[in-house]
Specification:
The complex is a heterodimer of chains A (about 425) and B (about 300). Chain A has about 425 residues and is an alpha+beta fold. Chain A contains 13 helices and twelve strands. The radius of gyration of chain B is 20 Å and the shape is globular. The chains are: A alpha+beta (about 425), B mainly alpha (about 300). Chains A and B meet through helix 2 and strand 12 of A and helix 2, helix 6 and helix 8 of B. The structure holds adenosine-5'-triphosphate and magnesium ion. Chain A: Pfam families: Pkinase (PF00069).
Chain lengths: ~425, ~300
């Protein structure tokens, strides 16, 4: 029963030798991506263990030439703990975690695609819209995974196309829980600590306005942005991030706010009563004042944006399976609701007419789709999982926005 | 109670029966009889009192939340279901559990600061090199299979406060009963909501003027044994003369709820025996025995 205690390699209880070795269990076939926290590799199971895996290695800090134990980052700890706890068809599946050679290896099921790659594919060689039923299935699965996270008291806080994984059989898996956290933790927790969250293009207006109180609504804003991007193949609010100054105070994200206002109109206290007490309210007022009257739309222009998006994408403007139609617009406008207290919840969104009307939704988002997406790019330039401890700056595959977002993420740890 | 406790790793992997815990401990003893006779240690609960006092010291200057201390205590318990204490440096385990729990409970502390603080208190047991703590963190996480999220009874307590219209005194007392239960094996034996209900019953039934049991354990233990058990025994007997209305309300709620009354009674008994054994606690004694063990086995190296 207690055989594990007899491991002869194990020194005293507090010393550490891994009982399991990554290379004994997995064959590393190549390198996928390198982010702020480490690298992701593609691997195959060994010794009869079937399947493909993605192994995320958290790099150990280096002190001089020797790698030392320096304590794990809070982000790694959160991701490890949350992934061990969660279990849902629309959340990335963790196989195991191996602690070896002073590094952490999180072994996930391998997913062939992600939304960033899928969106990118639809812009090549020329723009061709993602079929409406596929958008609907993606969004439904995404919201379904998000509902599970929220009912498990988990805020994701970094939803963006690169973090939404898609399996070869068309299942959506929410990935990258590196910024996720539990929100029932009482008292100060959601106010203090990390200041900047969510890649700027997907960042909810209340966060831009300086709120430090995260609620599940921040994730639903991001879902709205992703919905819009699936339809238009471009980030809907593509702002430029204002960098943190030397005093590490978080600047007002003026440009990002402007991008939102250009489409959504100026937020007023009528539509968003809480806005007057937001820390950056005066910044918003001076932003509004700095432009000629009428420069910013008074009211939302989202419907106009949506209609021209349908037109450009060749979606039918009326209704039917070939278009997200009027229901799609209504859902989008409820996701991109300024006031976080009025914004639609994951539960409500799943019951929206966009999903209720228009027939069954496939659990395979590729169902009925003729085209083929390319496989995830796996390179050979670094597939030594043991030595690759320095973070690469280069990302294989597609250009990505995530490095930009993570740069500020690093600062807050 | 949290909807997700039922699916949690805590429920699936970290709930033991009393027998299983006893088996584990017996197997440790079997495997290293020499160490056990050479290095006798105080009763596990007395050691736990000692550990928790060390944690409180560590947390003092770092404005740590109670919940982080509670999580650290659970980590220590889980770790010692996988490792014989006599093969470890408990001071390092306590410090590491604290460091890890602070990160998990969203009040992170820098590793250098934690090590410096620990060296203030136990310079002879904690090396200045932070990598020791980093390594122990790996051991802790690995033994716990990265299952680091701990559900605590505090949350159930605050959820039940309005429902049972508990006074702030009652809540404070229940809170301190919950603090005390970390000194026993209870966190490994029962789900958090059972503990919370037990704490509420103890608080409502005894309503003592003191806000904490510490130091006054013996009279309380007596009172709980004599009075509390009777009341608990009367829970099933709804037609009897019955206790005062305040308590009747609680009894009524309990009957409605699906809480396992037997489990609640067992928890109360564990607590009573904790307060009894507390009488024998001596910090000096724990310190001496642990110190001798760590030093003569070179566990601090
Ligand atoms: N399970 C998986 N299967 C295949 N590829 C994956 C998997 N998980 C992650 N990836 C790829 O690796 C990239 C980075 O993973 P992830 O977002 O988890 O790490 P990160 O260090 O937080 O990265 P970033 O800083 O870029 O967000 C993803 O965008 C995706 O391309
Ligand atoms: Mg990512």
């Amino acid at each position: 029963m207690l055989k594990e205690h007899l491991d002869p390699r194990k020194p005293s209880g507090t010393g550490y030798t891994s009982k399991v070795r990554v290379r004994d269990k997995y064959h590393i076939v190549g390198f996928i991506s390198s982010g702020t926290y480490g690298r992701v590799y593609k691997a195959l199971g060994k010794n009869g263990q079937k399947g493909e895996f993605a192994i995320k290695k958290f790099k150990p800090d280096k002190e001089g030439e020797i790698i030392q134990y320096t304590g794990l980052s809070q982000s790694a700890i959160r991701e490890m703990a949350l992934c061990s706890e969660l279990d849902h068809a629309n959340v990335v599946q963790l196989e195991e975690i191996i602690l070896e050679d002073k590094a952490i290896f999180m072994v996930f099921e391998y997913t062939e695609h992600d939304l960033l790659q899928i969106i990118h594919h639809h812009t090549q060689p020329h723009r061709h819209a993602i079929p409406a039923p596929m958008v609907r299935s993606i969004l439904f699965q995404l919201l379904n995974g998000l509902l599970y996270l929220h009912t498990s008291w988990v805020l994701h806080r970094d939803l963006k196309p690169a973090n939404i994984l898609v399996t070869s059989s068309g299942a959506i898996r929410i990935g990258d829980l590196g910024l996720a956290r539990l929100f029932y933790k009482p008292l100060n927790s959601l106010f203090s600590g990390d200041k900047v969250v969510v890649t700027i293009w997907y960042r909810a207006p209340e966060l831009l306005m300086g709120s430090r109180h995260y609620t599940p609504a921040v994730d639903l804003w991001a879902v709205g942005c992703i919905f819009a991007e699936l339809l238009s193949l471009r980030p809907i609010f593509k702002g430029e991030e204002a960098k943190m100054d030397s005093k590490k105070t978080v600047p007002f994200q003026r440009n990002q706010m402007m991008k939102i206002i250009e489409i959504m109109g100026l937020p007023t206290k009528d539509i968003w009563p809480g806005i007057v007490s937001m820390p950056e309210y005066s910044q918003l007022q001076s932003l509004a004042m700095s432009r000629a009257p009428g420069h910013f739309p008074r009211s939302s222009n989202l419907e106009g944006w949506y209609q021209s998006c349908l037109k450009n994408g060749g979606y039918a403007t009326s209704s039917g399976a070939g278009t997200p139609g009027a229901d799609g617009y209504d859902l989008l406008s409820r996701l991109l609701e300024y006031d976080p207290t009025k914004r639609i919840t994951a539960q409500e969104a799943l019951e929206h007419p966009y999903f209720k009307n228009g027939g069954p939704i496939s659990a395979n988002c590729f169902e009925g789709f003729e085209g083929k997406y390319p496989h995830r790019r796996v390179t050979q330039d670094d597939n030594d999982i043991r030595s690759g401890s320095l973070p690469g700056t280069k990302r294989s595959g597609l250009p990505d926005d995530s490095l930009m977002g993570r740069a500020s993420k690093r600062l807050k740890e | 109670m949290a909807a997700n406790y039922w699916a949690s790793t805590q429920r699936r992997h970290w709930l033991f029966t009393k027998e299983r815990l006893a088996d584990i401990r017996e197997s440790f003893r079997e495997r290293d009889k020499a160490a056990h006779s050479q290095f006798p240690l105080p009763d596990q609960r007395l050691l736990n009192i000692y550990f928790s006092q060390q944690l409180i010291k560590l947390g003092k200057r770092m404005s740590t939340r109670q919940q982080a201390l509670a999580t650290a205590q659970v980590y220590i318990k889980r770790f010692y279901t996988k490792n014989e204490i006599r093969h470890t440096n408990p001071y390092l385990v306590v410090t590491t559990a604290f460091y890890l729990a602070c990160k998990m409970e969203e009040c992170p502390q820098h590793i250098r600061f934690v090590v410096a603080e620990a060296r203030n208190f136990w310079p002879e047991f904690i090396a200045p090199d932070v990598s020791k703590l980093g390594e122990c963190e790996f051991a802790l996480i690995s033994e716990m299979n990265s299952q680091l999220i701990v559900h605590h009874p505090y949350r159930t307590l605050s959820e039940l406060q309005p429902e049972l219209s508990l006074t702030s005194d009652e809540v404070a007392l229940a809170w301190s009963v919950i603090n005390d239960h970390y000194l026993t094996d209870l966190p490994l034996l029962y789900p958090p909501h059972v503990i919370a209900v037990m704490a509420i019953i103890v608080a409502v039934v005894f309503k003592p003027s003191q806000t904490s049991f510490h130091g006054t354990a013996a009279p309380l233990a007596g009172a709980m044994r004599d009075g509390g058990m009777n009341i608990l025994a009367a829970l099933g007997d709804k037609n009897g003369a019955g206790p005062p209305p305040r308590i009747q309300k609680l009894v009524g709620w309990l009957a409605e709820s699906e809480v396992d009354i037997r489990a609640v009674i067992e928890c109360t008994q564990e607590l009573v025996s904790l307060y009894e054994i507390w009488e024998n606690y001596s910090e000096k004694h724990c310190k001496e025995l642990l110190g001798r063990m760590v030093k003569s086995k070179n566990l601090d190296k």
